[in-house]
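Researcher: For the annotation table, I need C-alpha cells for chitinase. Please keep the output clean. Sequence:
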Amino acid sequence: MKVLALALLFLPGLAPLLRQFGPPSPSPSPLAEKGEAEDSCGGVSSIITRPMFEEMLKHRGDLSCPGSFYTYEAFIAAAEFFPGFGTTGLPATSRRELAAFLGQTSHETRGGWKGAPDGRYSWGYCWIEQLSPPSIYCNTSYVNYPCAVGKSYHGRGPIQLTWNFNYGRAGQYLGSDLLNDPATVKKNATVAFMTAMWFWMTSQPPRPSCHDVITGKWVPSSNDTAAGRLPGFGVITNIVNRGECGHGYDGRVAGRIGFYDRYCQILGTDMGENLDCYNQQPFDWEYDDPSPTQPI
C-alpha cells in the first residue's frame, strides 16, 4: 500500500508530502467478514474493504452530494502515514476506532435528513468544505501560524479542519504549506484525509488525542473526572466540537452517535460506554496553544 500512497502523492505541488514523519465484541457483519483478517496486522485495508467503504458512505457519490471526492484509495493511502491509526490493540479496538473516526467525520460532512433514503446515517461524506463560512477563521494571536493575505481557514475535509493554527500545525506535520494554500485540503482527497487523521492522532493539552481515548490509552485526570469527562465516544465529541457539550441533550451529539452506531454494526464491534457529552464540561479553549504569542 505504500506504493499506492506515494503514487497518489506524486501530484504537482505535493512533493513535500513525501516527508514522513472491554467486553467481547459481536460477530462481524457479512461485509466485515469479506476479506478481513482476524487481526489488524494487515493494516486498515484488511479491516475496511472497498465494498464496506462503499456501503458505509453509500450516498457520497450522489448528484446532490459532491463527496465522491473522498475515495477509498485516498482513505487507505492517508492511513498508511499514521502508524497505529485503526490498527492499535485487539481487533475489536481497531474496528471501534475506525467506526469512531468515520462516525465523527461523517457528522462533520453529513448531507442526510429525516426520511432520507437508507436513513440519515447513510449520508456521511457529502460535503468537502464549510458552506457560507461566517469568517475566515484567522486568530492573529498565533504568531507562529500567520494568516496569509486573502486566504480563509474555514472548515475543509473530513474533520472540517478550521482556524489558521490548525492548518499550520497540520501542514508542519505533513510537510505541506497549508497556511499559504489551505485550499489544498479540498483539492486533494489524500491530503484531506491526512489532515483529519492528523487531528485524530494529535493531542492538544489538556485535550487528549481522539486516538488515545478510543484505544484506551487515555487516563482521565481528577479534573477530568470531576468534569464528567470519562473515556468513551463522548469525550471525542468534546475534543472535536466542545460547543456541543455540557448543556444537556443536543441533537448534534445524538447525530454523531447515530453514525457511530451504524458503523459499529457494519464493522461488528461494540460502541463502548460514555457515548455522549451532554453533561460533560467542555475542555478549556485557551489551551489550544500553550504559548500562542511566543515564536518558536
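Researcher: And a one-line annotation?
Model: Residues 1-39, 286-296 have pLDDT under 50 and may be disordered.
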